[in-house]
Please model this.
Amino acid sequence: MKLELSHCPDVSMVKGAISRLENATDIRLRCLSGSVWITVDGVYDDVVLEAGQSWRVPGPARVIAQAMESSTLRFESTPDCGRVPAARRLQREPAFA
Model:
């Protein structure tokens, strides 16, 4: 699903569902329920957001979010949507040793 942001849309996703946001700039992703795997073009480390966590996209970039279980993810385009604890980062293994 490709998203267009207006204010702070909540996206409900079933396990395995994917949402994509092109050219994200000044966007904070907030996991309201479940857990979501986040990949950003040009960023080496992926991020997993669990319920109650948020993470700011180092944009502009394409963002791909995949639900690891049934989840609700908010795409916040303005600062008045609230604050929650930071997400944990995942370290990728180098492709070649």
